[in-house]
Amino acid sequence: MNSQPPAPIGVAVVGAGYWGPNLVRNFQGSSAFHLRWLCDLDVERAQRVLGDYSTVRVSADLDEVLADPDVHAVAIATPAGTHLPVAMAALRAGKHVLVEKPLAATYAEGLELVEEAGRRGLTLMCDHTYCYTPAVLRIRQLLADGELGELHFLDSVRINLGLVQRDIDVIWDLAPHDLSILDFVLPPSVRPIAVAAHGADGIGAGRACVAYLTLQLSNGAIAHIHVNWLSPVKVRTAIIGGSKRTLVWDDLNPSQRLSLYDRGVDVASPEELEDEQRRDILVSYRSGDMVAPALTEREALRTMVDEYARAITTGTPALTDGRSGLRVLEILQAASRSLAEGGTMIKLDERHMA
Amino acid sequence: MNSQPPAPIGVAVVGAGYWGPNLVRNFQGSSAFHLRWLCDLDVERAQRVLGDYSTVRVSADLDEVLADPDVHAVAIATPAGTHLPVAMAALRAGKHVLVEKPLAATYAEGLELVEEAGRRGLTLMCDHTYCYTPAVLRIRQLLADGELGELHFLDSVRINLGLVQRDIDVIWDLAPHDLSILDFVLPPSVRPIAVAAHGADGIGAGRACVAYLTLQLSNGAIAHIHVNWLSPVKVRTAIIGGSKRTLVWDDLNPSQRLSLYDRGVDVASPEELEDEQRRDILVSYRSGDMVAPALTEREALRTMVDEYARAITTGTPALTDGRSGLRVLEILQAASRSLAEGGTMIKLDERHMA
Amino acid sequence: MNSQPPAPIGVAVVGAGYWGPNLVRNFQGSSAFHLRWLCDLDVERAQRVLGDYSTVRVSADLDEVLADPDVHAVAIATPAGTHLPVAMAALRAGKHVLVEKPLAATYAEGLELVEEAGRRGLTLMCDHTYCYTPAVLRIRQLLADGELGELHFLDSVRINLGLVQRDIDVIWDLAPHDLSILDFVLPPSVRPIAVAAHGADGIGAGRACVAYLTLQLSNGAIAHIHVNWLSPVKVRTAIIGGSKRTLVWDDLNPSQRLSLYDRGVDVASPEELEDEQRRDILVSYRSGDMVAPALTEREALRTMVDEYARAITTGTPALTDGRSGLRVLEILQAASRSLAEGGTMIKLDERHMA
Amino acid sequence: MNSQPPAPIGVAVVGAGYWGPNLVRNFQGSSAFHLRWLCDLDVERAQRVLGDYSTVRVSADLDEVLADPDVHAVAIATPAGTHLPVAMAALRAGKHVLVEKPLAATYAEGLELVEEAGRRGLTLMCDHTYCYTPAVLRIRQLLADGELGELHFLDSVRINLGLVQRDIDVIWDLAPHDLSILDFVLPPSVRPIAVAAHGADGIGAGRACVAYLTLQLSNGAIAHIHVNWLSPVKVRTAIIGGSKRTLVWDDLNPSQRLSLYDRGVDVASPEELEDEQRRDILVSYRSGDMVAPALTEREALRTMVDEYARAITTGTPALTDGRSGLRVLEILQAASRSLAEGGTMIKLDERHMA
């Protein structure tokens, strides 16, 4: 176990592309960290991200950054294919590591990182940003507190006009969000055990642009994920059905992101009802009260950065540690195999889901 | 071929349960029909449906109704399991037949009806009500006119707090709507060729209360249907993605049921874009104009009743004739088989889909 | 006081135009009434409303209808200018009277009816339909129970593409809905005391097509009503702000018509807050929980018809009796005067608001 | 006329409270400006705004900042009561001036600034931020191009839980947004000529927390503004009705901020329609197509900052110059007088509205 770094923790961000600037901004805004470097092969790009008024240093040389003894932690926002070498170099230099999702390009690569960090007693954290939104943190709490009762189904839709990626399909691009959220909010006793995936290319992109994942959970429940790059409307909604209540999360409705419905259906079969009752029920919209809890708006990345600091300082695993990243990779790989096999249900390896 | 019945066409409604009253009201409102009987084993129920001010006769005896020479057509709104005997009796009595969806309890039973009607030159029509909504009629036209370009994907969600049926699962209860719509709007050159189904019970109902159907279409496109009895929110939305435009149908938004979006995504891969462009696109909601065409509100059942009269009078098949009912049954049966086999993709019988 | 009529109460509907058919349908559906006549100068129109299957009689002769001893009650859905003679004739024939809103064309005419009914001990009821919606009934209860605390403001918007009426302006066409609701839900201790109206014609219709009413209430609160025939979007929303909670009624959102918000603002002035707190509050959407109570869907007219039966049977005033109709007329007349005077605040006559 | 400053233009931001940080961020992001100072009486607050990584200087001394010859322009985000002395000092030091809305605490004070800037040939610009949103820029264009036809009415709602200000009422806090937008989008031939204001305190704040402004426009049209600090729901919607089309701006719906409706109502009176037509129209939601134009998302402040640079560089008035700020102040002052007089319609001074 490394000794604790002095506060604030010196940190370097690697990668000044799409996501890096968000990390830069949030590390700068955190009193727990001191941002020392922004590292990118394209130093001009890095300088543009920092702007004309910054005292943070830029470098194209990762070794230079890792050699700085004032750097105790790094945050990696480079393409997934580079996560293994970059993160491994950082760990070997004794730095704590935060990696953008997915943890690595494959389960095997991710495992190397988890084991290396374990051996060295360093924090390895995966930036599953959505898990740190006020809404998802609340969902996790509601499930943990039994407010929903036993989980029956989870239906997640994440669709919008998207950038058709050149190297990965829509599952690897978008589903890590849903899978990491699922991993985060499920009670410890419930685990995904198998996955099937269907998809279509459609526009001749050479990879799935629309995809559906169906997961069997260990308690008999079902989870379903719809990811789509080709939708003109943006939808980010999840419905989580439990035996007591059902939760609807509409991430694009800031005034009512979470709606908690009292149970709206009974097992009583319709044949036991009179016709008019039956008709009333069918035209009704719902039968129980709904509560929309107030959520304090807070940028998820700010909370994620705080958790990184907490994990480093206490030496305890982050809420979204390397192992959670591995579980997401296990499902992604099984989903890819299912997709290739035309939708076969693929069992997940229990040891990989621990 | 029977001779044309005199106008208005004498009609009898069989079944005074959930759906029958809607048929009664619409036949009464149509000048093409003269409603003569409401037939139900429970005559008090039938009388309640007609109310205290009606001149329409009630009967518990189907034979009595079918023996009435002024009855030229019947409309059957009894449970699916009774469709075969009731409809067959009507056909054998020389009556035109309209059947509530699904056409019959099985493909084989439905086929008997189609063949009997064919032999006798009688109209056999399936009450796929949604096909006659102004929205679906417009969708069909838009696809036929090539306004969407080539079809890429169709995603349909039909969820709400539902009545958990005692005899059928959520697929047989709700998916006939989506499947008949799909059958109705697809251009003739595109056909479903296989289906996979996943589902979950959850509440111990003894049958699937949540289910997902994935259909492979003959042109490589995908269709996906989510049906759910356990959702506290009611959603009836379909997204139909084409090569030129994408259509969103939100049936619960009467002021904007149809939204037609100019293409919002190009195949250009994000690596060709600068970071800031990429970021702009990812935070943008859409990139093309949207048109929401005006739709004249008209009750679908009124249009369906008109189409029944037209088919009877002209001796030509109804838009939703018995064969369309057979195609829906073929898919439902394959979906049930897939569900039982854990989600296997089941090929549809080409001859059944003709 | 007349003796109670035998059950069911024989009723005649006068007027087969826009609203009459709804009354016909609901009286037919009520076991408390027996619908005997539909009376209209145009008997063909009346017959079309009843359809080809009805045993209800039609007549163009009001006297014939009023002479029928089996008719104990009438419901009048003729233009407002005819309410006085038609309703007066009915009262003088000893019939209970229900009148479509507004009660009469002027306060003076309405008063004649109220006094005549009073002298004869007959029920005079105004068909303020909205008051009988499940939502408004609940709002009334919430205010009565003090769930909102003291009333601070009420803001009502009722706009849509409307028919430009030839004889009345948008205030007389639409505001009776809002004013009758206001009259219905206000606690007895709070009364409107003055009104100002602003409006615009715009399209050369010769009368106001857009109008705003501002009412001063006796407790210092404000009520504001926006009515508009020229809006392409339909909005029917009211916000009712109280000292404890605020209620939002969105009549076009059937899944969430009522939303009850915990108080979202404190008098604490922003100068006492730190900048970041202030910024957080300003970007927040709300700070308290929200509850959307379940409402049983029930057609308002059905409940209104029940209330008419109750009032007749018990001899007690209806919830929306003639006096409530008078109070609405007093405000409408004052609003017209204000409009003519360019928006002057016009005091209401206290004796007319009793 | 001053000579043009060298590019980039040296700028100082005065005020590090609520709005200042937004100006700091946008000046830093603009290549047309070089941010040199952030000036605030509380230098610690100013330093917090800049963060730990900035090279921008802070100062509590306005004179020091104005004495810097590299500062050619200032941006003032201090309370309205201080705008006169701060902006006057800047103008007298030869600096171009951007002032947060409202331009000054009174019309008279604003006029002093406009005249001083005029005498010195300096840019005086008012930060009417909303005018620079893509939506408002498009609305302005649509009105200028005659796409809406002649203006009939404008209805603006800006309500939310707000901070109850200690020194100003809700009209002075929120209505400057709506009034500056109105000023910005109105065609040059149409001007407000009178205003009436109604309001209520309710919560004992000592000033209006809910208010309604009604403006008469020179072409007979009406504009109405609802501002409210006490609404639990956030609404920022404007409806702009014209003789050809009607526009709805919903600023909180990022996927459809602007909706342009074909005319949905004709002057044809309902008496000319048959009953069924009339009923159809009344239950219809709209009768024409709707187009929702695509808008490129761009931060309004970025565009505002660009316009400030353009005005300075070219020596021509900014789109929201001092005179537009004066017109807003004239209306605010008249509204305050109307509020004090119980809602009297107050004529605006034509010379002040030029």
Could you please describe the fold and organization of this structure?
- The structure is a homotetramer of 354-residue chains.
- The first copy, chain A, folds into two domains: 9-122, NAD(P)-binding Rossmann-like Domain (Rossmann fold, 3-Layer(aba) Sandwich), CATH 3.40.50.720; 131-296 and 331-353, Dihydrodipicolinate Reductase, domain 2 (2-Layer Sandwich), CATH 3.30.360.10.
- Chain A has helices at residues 20-29, 43-50, 62-66, 83-92, 107-120, 134-144, 170-185, 275-283, 300-314, 322-340; strands spanning 9-14, 33-39, 57-59, 73-76, 96-100, 124-127, 151-161, 192-200, 210-217, 222-228, 230-242, 245-250, 258-262, 290-292, 346-347.
- Chain A is globular, with a radius of gyration of 22 Å.
- Chain A has a nine-stranded mixed beta sheet. Chain A has a six-stranded parallel beta sheet with strand order 3-2-1-4-5-6, sandwiched between helices.
- The two termini of chain A are 23 Å apart.
- With 354 residues, the first copy, chain A, is an alpha/beta fold.
- In chain A, helix 5 runs antiparallel to helix 10 (322-340) and helix 7 (170-185) packs across helix 10.
- In chain A, strand 5, helix 5 (107-120) and strand 6 (124-127) form a beta-alpha-beta unit.
- Chain A has ten helices and 15 strands.
- Chains in contact: A-B, A-C, A-D, B-C, B-D, C-D.
- Strand 14 (290-292) of chain A pairs antiparallel with strand 14 (290-292) of chain C.
